[in-house]
Prior knowledge:
Layout: H1 7-12, H2 22-39, E1 57-58, E2 68-72, E3 76-79, E4 82-86, H3 87-92, H4 99-118, E5 127-132, H5 138-150, E6 155-158, E7 161-162
Amino acid sequence: MPFQPSKKKKRRSRLTEATLTLTSMMDMFTIILLFLLVNYSAEGIVVTDPKKLSLPISTSQKMPTRKLDIQITTEDIIVEGAKIMGVKEAADNHDYIIKPLLDALDENTKKVKFIEKNNPSFKFTGGVMIQGDKGIPFILLEKVMYTCGQAGYSGISLTVISRG
């Protein structure tokens, strides 16, 4: 006759239900989420593309950095989303300095200098990013760039659509 297990061993062999502790699982998912958020890297900046603006195509591979935004559509000159003047008025002006644009740039410089005075980690770089429609006359782009230079914005970047 085979060996009979004792009563103690019979009780131990019964299957027990395993419970899942959600606290440990939540901790694990939180750590994974924080790891992914810290290591997530987005390159470049978001450039708004208005419907009335058709940017030129280029083979440039350099990613843009955040600067003061000037948009030159076929109808308007816009600084940081605010219309400054019409393109026709600026093109008809025989002076190289566009006075309303110069005033807007000077106003922005005052704001940035005020922030710089109160926050030493913030610096005025004098950078401007021009989004010019490919249909605007070159003389207008030249006037805008000259006006930016006269206002102290010598770091001029032109925004294009990268083909490569």
